From TrEMBL:
Top-level taxon: Eukaryota
Entry keyword set: Carbohydrate metabolism
Organism of provenance: Malus domestica (Apple)
Pfam families, sorted: Raffinose_syn
Protein's UniProt name: Uncharacterized protein
């Protein structure tokens, strides 16, 4: 997902009850982003999913293509 202008549909940050970032993305494959801190957990369309985070800030996970949602997924990173 190296076309962030075409992949990211929505982005919302909240700080109530803990910091979170909600990202709606279109597409499937490798999602790669920078995060200065490691998320406590990540949810994909409401279910918790595994992700990788490195000390250099690389945040990575694999997104499946959801045909019934026209390829749009909702990711929530909780810090």
């Amino acid at each position: 997902m190296f076309n962030s202008g075409g992949s990211i549909q929505e982005l919302e940050y909240t700080i109530e009850g803990g910091v979170s970032a909600k990202v709606k993305v279109k597409g499937g494959g490798c999602f790669l982003a920078y995060s200065s801190g490691c998320p406590k957990k990540c949810c994909l369309n409401g279910g918790e999913v595994a992700f990788e985070w490195s000390d250099e800030g690389k945040l990575k996970l694999n997104l499946p293509w959801f045909e019934e949602a026209a390829g749009i997924s909702e990711l929530v990173f909780m810090f």
